[in-house]
Amino acid sequence: MNGHAPATSSAAPGGAATAAHAQVDARHPWPGLAAYDERASDYFKGREDEAQALARLVQASNLVVLYGRSGLGKSSLLQAGLFPLLRKARMLPVYLRVDHGAGAPDVLEQIARRLTEEAAQYALQITPRGEGESLWRWLHRSDFELATHDNWPLQPVFVLDQFEEVFAHTERGGRMQATLATLADLAGNRISDEVAGDREATRGLDVARHNYRMLFSFREDYLPEIRVWERSLPALLRHYLRLEPMSAARAEAAVQAAGKAVLDDGAAGAIVRFVGNLGSAGRGGRDDIEPVLLSLTCTRLNLRRGAERINPQLVEVAGPNILHDFYAEALAGMPERVHRFIEDHLIQGERSRGSYSRAEALSAGLLTESELDLLTRERRLLRIESQGGEPRIELIHDRLVDVVRLARDRHAALQAAQAATEAERRQATEQLAAQAVQLRRNRNGLIVALAGVAVLLAAVALVARTAWRNSERAEANATAARAAASAALAAQLRAREQEQRATQAQKRAEEAAGQLKQQLDFFAFNVTGNLRAEQLIAKSREADQALRDLLAAQTERDAQRRARTRLEIWAKEIDGPRVRNAVVDLGFDTVVRVANVTDVATNALWMGCGAHVEDLRLVALALLRAGVTLRWMGAVPEANVNRRAALVQVGAGQPFVGLPALGVDQAKGFANPCPAAR
Fold it and tell me: The pTM is what?
């Protein structure tokens, strides 16, 4: 295989090789949360010893196992570390993640197709596979050959990565057992059921031949399931490599070697100290580094350096934001109960990382199996560690404890504010109810008094008719009537005064409730400034309703389009966090760039002509809801070579400062500035 280009890796189950998530080169030497593929092997550093050890195992044994915790870089070790060494040893790595879809072929057929694809990609000589011929029969044919174009024989190595998916997949039972049984026959080089006991079926076969090798890679928390399978495949765990975290010294050397083109002196050490939280009292002197967290931090710092190099000052300033952004992005779209589970159960006090039983978390509904799989496999926020023989969920690293604690404290503060508001609202309601009861009592007293006056006046009328008989008696009764009328009038005045006081109390309570609701609006819309800025809140409410209406009218296809649309935020210290928080839940492929204009708050939006105008409207409404003042919206300039990309940019410009502010109606009605496609 010398002279051939290395194969690309595959991140899709069962699929052929695909491009890596991000291009890796000297100016961008880290892939973030994605795995290094074989093309990026020049920048995969720090695991040379493990790659050599794994290569020796594969060359010495027909069956090898690689396992370790989530986030340690097993897929990167295989593709960027092991595969180049296997090719030098005249072996052909055939990478596969088993496809468990309902319509997917069986696992041996998937392996056979991947072998065919690899042979075609590198123009290798391979014995043609007969129509309908099984992988086992094909590999055990007496005439089977695999060689380079110049006749150097090659030995295929079938690498089944993320093999725990066989056990984690929801469709277990008979299909899983059948998959394990066929793989056990292949890995153990046992005679398959299709030829067992049939001498005629073995014609043309060399049943003792073992001209291939197999490697299974899986997460360590699935070791108990692997132990059960070992009963059917006794040789399974005889030759294995357990991947460990990196030490701080190896991590620093790896960062320096990969990023020498973009790092200033001292930057590699600053990055490792930050990622490992080295020197923290809660670490107890440990210096283990999680490679996935290291790669993420390096990637985000590389995006923020602009035209400069990464230096220790950038690490100190931007580092905390990177971890907070990572936490927010990992939980984007997750229900509130998942936030509560992580913040209430996975940290202890202020400094320590906790853990929680995987089985108990799932059975109690604290999170679902699919949510846990997403947070461990793709977003890499959590991992599952075996403690005392029990799988337990924990944060991927101690470094995230402070991030989660701050998120927990923010939620607690918001809940306290909401509870205080609710308590004051209840108190005001109870006071109003009590005043209403008293008012009704006063009115009832007034009615009784007036009724008494009516009776008294009737008596006076009777006395008046007989006044000519007894004028002195009539005068006394008239005096009494006047006194009663005066008393009734005084009671009426007192009732009116009490009613006015009750009305004023109700008005004060309504004003207090309005102010409290306004404070909650500030929490909801992330608005900063004067809490009595009613116009600002009104605009945020209007934008919030418009954004909800626009999202409600969209389809799943619109959501898929947003996921393919790049949202670039040219962040500035003046309003960067508010802008990022405003758009984080819209579902775009979001990246943060270092802004050239740093002294002007966000005031402009641009869109590439490959983007949909409705996506620009969504971003505009989200920013208006957060209190960001927009003054201009338009197309990416002609000078931008990426003008036709599916792209939305959030930034600022000095020429827009004097323009009038855009309102919600202007954002909703913004027309596509790009010319119609011909």
Answer: 0.56
